[in-house]
TrEMBL record:
It comes from marine sediment metagenome. One of its GO terms (biological process) is negative regulation of glycolytic process. Keywords: Hydrolase. One of its GO terms (molecular function) is fructose-2,6-bisphosphate 2-phosphatase activity. This is Phosphoglycerate mutase. Gene3D superfamilies: Phosphoglycerate mutase-like (3.40.50.1240). It holds the Pfam family His_Phos_1. GO terms for cellular component: cytosol.
Amino acid sequence: MPLILLVRHGENDYVKEQRLPGRIPGIHLNKHGRKQAKRLAKFLKPAPVKAVYSSPLERTMETAQPIAKAFNLKVIPRERLIETDVGKWQGKKIKKLRKLDSWRKVQLNPSRFQFPGGEHILDCQYRLVQEIEQLTERHDPQDMIVCVSHADPIKMAVAYYLGLPLD
């Protein structure tokens, strides 16, 4: 199985503002996030990276670009690496969401939770695992690939491969 580096996108202003960005288009890395992406590309430069895949959202593509450039590769957008569809919570302040009963539910039993108007947590996990499995089939076992995605989908995939429950 190829070595897969799961990378979370760099900082954006939604993170700083404690907002849940979800899949809102047009959220770009801020200055600090661009620096993070460049530093990561420099750090990875000695590694034998064969491919760079990314969620199609701007903040992930902007994180992936310097990495791909360091290896003379193109970023390959992959729809299944996209952020969890948080539905009606998209763009909301986390401080307000914490007051909801449903916030407590997702924190205590995420495996049973579906975002209002959005994706079920287990569907997100399944989607990301399926993508990783498909990418591993496309590469040789000795290859190293980079997948730039989002915090929650990455956590769910890691939990799956470690055999850990989401709850």
